[in-house]
Structure formats: structure tokens, C-alpha cells
Specification:
Mannitol-specific EII, Chain A; 6-stranded parallel beta sheet; single chain; 20 helices; 6-stranded mixed beta sheet; about 550 residues
Length: about 550
Amino acid sequence: MESNRNESFLHLIQRSQRGKLKIYLGYCSGVGKTLAMLQEAERLHENGIDIVAGFVDVHEKEEPKSLLSKLEAIPPKKQIYRGIEITEMDIDAILKRQPSVVLVDELQHTNVPGSKNAKRYEDVEEILGAGIHVISTLNIQHLESLYETVEQVTGIKVKDRLPDRLLLQAEQLVNVDITPDDLRQRLIEGKIFLPGQPGTLVSDFFKTESLEQLRELTLRELASQIDLKRRTQIADEFPSNPDQVMVYISSKSQNSEALIRYASRIAGRLNKNWYAVYVQALDDTSPVMDEKSKPRVADTLALARKLGAAVFTYKGDDAVKTILQFAREYRVGHIVIGNSGDTLPFWQRIIGKKTLVERLIDGCRDISVTVFDTRQEGEPGSSQSYGQLPVIKREIPRFDKLPQNEWKELVMNAKVVVLDDVTDKEKAFRMMLHECCKARPDIDEEESWKRLLEREKQGGTYVGSEIGIPHARLGGLKQPAVIIGVSKNGVYDKGSHNKARIIFLVLTPISDPNGHIKILGVITNMASDSQWRNAMLQEAG
């Protein structure tokens, strides 16, 4: 079975012009991920593949050390941090060497401050972008969305974490597995290297019940990834009516990072785009409230972007109205909202007043609402949830007006406009719209401009990661239109106080409600790719 996996990856290497990622995944340190990676490296080397070790730590173990000695190794880069010499992977040397395949251990590793990238997975993304294939290793506890779950299982807060999208990017995932009893025996025999770990943490992590639960998490994650890729292939062939996922964030949300991770996992399981929507109430603008809530909200939205969400911010005192309006516009089928335990006085109940959660549930007729109890720590799935409404079945078309691949081609082949010295948002949008209409004479420029401004008044379209997506739906338009603006210094939005360096202006027919969602999904995937963003920004000089 393992031989077939290696032959498959060898075939990918031989036929691909872009870097492919393969991950050896384990449920804990010591299961044998690095050894399995090196054994595959030996077989690839024997098949004539130009393979090097970018960064592999064998901890002086005989068999891995022997296998590593047969490979060319890129010397690590030495850096001084707080008076201590630290070695890190030399990404520049790897890019200069240009091997076919590079081995990179511990994908979740945090680089020393001052490194080219903050995280090793960002190094790997840069290597993949250069057309070099990567084989790496990872333990399940380092997935960002499993942070609370792992803490509940082991009692340990895992510091080094990476976005779940790295697993989705992998062409192949290989489970490296041994029984918990065998793993504990390896620990007793001193065969597991755990640098800098206090004895109490090691004993907590290596409890039999903890290992069994981590092992189960790994198997479930692998099964989920296999199912997700299968459903992605089916969706490409038979695109269906999208039911996207959104999570609502307010300045009063407690434990909101757990809420974000929960929504991320729901979106991953459903294979849907997802959005984090923050509605800033008018009383949130007071200096006292702003001082308390602003850092917490900023951290929450930053995590949402890291996990692949498109982030939107709105202002107003009727959060329910804003949420429902957003849900209708973005074809949301699943809303995740936190319950902080807010209750109403008895007299308000008598006159018919309801909490925000109750009003939202009342307003959702064909949307599933999941209420996560943010007062509790631990795995979101173990929290008490209520308000789960059935999803009302809709008539789903068997195909869209454009085939799936054409949605991608529409965005990938969009005209790029360099916004030299344009820092005002409206000026940038107007310039882009004018260029768009020059290429598409069927578009009414003044009507489009009017619709774009109307949409901006409803809420800013800067979605994070320095990305803006101004858009409008137009009557009479037959085919969607996309144009991309690139700004070296960024275009400022006074409303959200954010800058966008890459702006997608999107016009879609009002008669095709799926069009905007399909295009937004393509844009979200592209914008989350740091290599693509860097390449686009080079257009600005």
C-alpha cells in the first residue's frame, strides 16, 4: 500500500509543473513520521529524482540519521536571537538550488524573529510557488481549528499552530500510526525526543486516554479530508446552489476565537466558502468601549482571515437586520452565532421583547442557525447548542450559466489595472469601472457606478488581507465582468480604516444570483494564496 502511495507521488512529480505538497500526519510525536518521510526520500532518490533535505531533525537516531546521510542537505541558516545561536531552514538557498523535491520537517514550526517568514508553512508555500515539490510532517494537535479540542483532551495549550487549509493544499496525506501502548513504550525506552517539555506536560500528553482521543481525531480528520476532496471533484462537475457559512461577531462576544474555529470546521465539513461578519453597534464607538473591545475584535477577525474567511464589517444598531440582509445577498445557508448568556428581564418578556439570538432565529426561514455557548471552554461540539433549524429544501439547478471552470478562468484572466498614486477609494473604483466598461461596451457605466455606491453604503467591501471586492448586480447584464486593481501603497477606506492593495471589481447579472457567489469563492481562494498575492503586487512595481 505504501509503495503505491510513493509511486503515485512520483507520478505527480514527473507530470507537474507546479509544486505539490505531501504530508505525513501523526497523532503525536514519536509515531515515526520523520522516518517514513526519509524512507520515501530514499526510494525517490533511487528513482533518479533530484531530492534534498531542506530541514530534517533526526535527533541522533541511528536509522533516520543513516537515511539522511544518503541525501544532499541544504545547510541551515544560523541566526542570533537574544544572544543564542539558532538554526533555521535556509529558504533562499533552497530556492537558489531549485531541486525537484525538498524535505521539510515540522510544518507547524515558528521561525525565529527576523526570519523571512514568521512560520515554516509560509516558507513551504513560497517553495511550492517556485515549482518545487515538498514532503513534510505534521501532528494533528497543530491544526488551528482544533485548538480548544486538543486543550480539552490533553490539558495543554498548543502554541505552534497552522491554518487547516494546509491539509487541503496537500496532494497526499499519509497517516503514520502505531498503537498508544507501543508509543508509550517508546517513551519509556527514551526513543522519543521532546525538547524543552516539562515532565508534567509530557505525562499529561502521553496518558493512554489522551493518546487514544488524539488518534481518533487524526483518523476523523483524514476521513474528512478524503470526503472533502471527493465532494470538491463532484462539485466541479455538478455545481449546486451554494449554501455558504457565516459567523456573526460582536464586540460583546466572549470566547469568540473558539466561535471562529467552530465555524471554520463547519465550513470545512460542508466544503463551503465562509464569512465572518462584524456588526459594530453605535455605542461601540465610545472611547471606553473601544478600548476594551477593539483589540479583542481585531484578534478575532485576524484569526478568521487566517482560517480562510472573508471578513466584512458593518455599522448600525440593528444587528439582526444586517445579518439577514448579508445572508440573503451572499446566499448563506448556515449561520453560527455565540450565546453569551444574555437574558431579558421578566417585564420585557411580558411585552414581547426577544434577545438577539431569538430574533435571528425568528427571521431565518430557510437558514440553519447554530448557537454556540461562548460561556464555556472546550470543544465546540461538547457545548450546549440550541436553535438548530431545519434547512428548507430549495429547487437546485443542475448547472450554472457558466461551467465551473469558466468562473475560475473569468477571474484568472481578468484585466489588471495598476492604480498608480490613487489612494482614494472612490477614485480607484471609478477608474477601474471605466476600464471595465471600455472592455465591455454592453455595460452601462453610470448605472453600474450608482449600484456600486449603493452597495458600499450598506457596508464596506474590504474583506481583509488587504483585499477589496466592490461589487454590484445589474439588470440587463448578460455575462459577469471582473477587473483587478493593484496598488503598491494601498487604497484607503475611511469607513473601515483599512487599506486594500488588491481590488476585485465584480459586476454580475441580477438574473443569475449564483454568479456572484461563484466568483467570490474563486476570489477568496486566490486571495488566501500568499504566493499569488505577492505575484500580483509585483504588477504595481
